[in-house]
Amino acid sequence: MRRLKHFASWLLVSLILFGCSAPVQADSTKIDPNFEAQVLQVLQKNPQAILDSVQAYQREQQETQRKAQQSFIQELQQKPKAVIAQSPTKGAGKTVLVEFSDFQCPYCQAAAGTVREFVTKNRDRVTLVYKHLPLTSIHAQALPAAKAAWAAGQQGKFWEFHDGLFAQQQQLGEPLYANLAKSLGLDVTRFDRDRNSQAAEAAITADVQLAEKLGINGTPFFVMNGRVFSGDVEIAALEQVLSQAQ
């Protein structure tokens, strides 16, 4: 019975979450007790039917995400410039490595050095494309850091700012953004104006919406040579995927 009640609460929270287009924090303690009792009663009478419905929904979502990722991979292979758009790039190769990253994510910090080494070694074969995916529900400084990096990019210093943010990830905040801007010789007035602009908001939102369409809910996330992979990647794994490029 206790497990069934837990499942009822999970199902209620899931229904709330599935109905929202943006991440929300759901508190099961605020659910109407009468409604919860009704759901529990339905579960007691039809446990398998409910479970089958949830599993069917999950399969449908997974298939939708799979198709979206396949479509993205195809577009990346056929029309790379459309995928790259205005995103920061590094390298000049035909093979495109797309990275979705969050400046406050420790796994992204760990992967940053590996990716930098890989692209430097293969800069004539690989083009790295950076897409912003600030996980704002768990990282308070992810969005401000992304906007600051975008603003630095408007003055041709995205990658230097990118490296500075990851090198001092524990100090993310206004003092760091200002100090990095000054140390890189940026026009600070323009930097502040750009990072607080609607253009910065729009650029990052576009990346986030793309990630949502692809079903990406964690960082770092990579797409290269028809493959998708995530986490703190090793350079050997990147080299292996690159070796399979046509």
Structure description:
- The protein is built from eleven helices and five strands; from the N terminus they run ααααββαβαααααββα.
- It has 246 residues and is of the alpha+beta class.
- It has two domains: 2-45, no CATH class; 77-243, Glutaredoxin, CATH 3.40.30.10.
- It has a five-stranded mixed sheet with strand order 1-3-2-4-5, with helices on both faces.
- The longest helix is centred in the first third of the chain and has 32 residues, at 47-78.
- The chain starts with a helix and ends with a helix.
List the helices and strands and how they pair.
Layout: H1 2-18, H2 33-45, H3 47-78, H4 80-84, E1 89-91, E2 95-101, H5 106-121, E3 126-132, H6 142-153, H7 158-167, H8 174-183, H9 188-195, H10 198-213, E4 221-224, E5 227-230, H11 235-243
Parallel strand pairs: 2-3
Antiparallel strand pairs: 1-3, 2-4, 4-5
Helix pairs in contact: 1-2, 2-3, 6-7, 6-9, 6-10
